[in-house]
Amino acid sequence: MVYLRLRGLTLRIDDPGHAPVARRLALASVVAAGALALSLAGEAGAWTGVMVVVALIAIALAIRPLLPPGTLRARRGLPSVVLMRALIAGALFGAEIYVPYLLIDEYGFSATAAGFGLTAAALLWAAYSTPQNQGFNSSALSISDSIGAAASIAVMGLTFVALKATDASFPAVFLIAAALAVLAVVPGLRMGRVAEAGPADGAVTGPATVAD
Questions:
Q1: Structure pTM?
Q2: In whole angstroms, what is the distance from residue 62 CA to residue 31 CA?
Q3: Could you report the per-residue pLDDT of 15-34, keeping only the tens digit for each?
């Protein structure tokens, strides 16, 4: 489906190579620290909520220069591709870690049988993924995938622990994954061509590129 939406588009943005490497490394370190803080937030006790909020804010501020302009606003074209990958990665990787747990804990599956679910998901994910542009674009996709997965896994983990004593723990984490997947439709619809505008609109006719 992604291929059909992107067919014929030139997935290029302005070359960001002039940006200082040290600044990008510093921002990447902040993003990594934020992701680590999210994963450890469950152990913060009364400070868990504060830790999650601060980590998410730090990630949101630091990650912007590492992604194509307009990614967090679901700008049409490549930015929407990157944003959609983050949401899909969050939904997929966040939910799949609970599949074997659910099968073992609730339905008595063996560890081997329950692991088949993860194996199938990994193989399908590898076949859905395609090589992207070099340099900045491909690194942005990797960062987006990693942060989307890390953030969703952390949030799902906190939710699961909070509801562990009830029957709502598994439904809650899968509901979060479903919500992320539905939300991914928004940037997914903005990956294709920009609608052609007529002369009356004061715009040049013809399909626009991602840079538009």
A1: 0.58
A2: 6
A3: 555 557 788 888 888 988 88
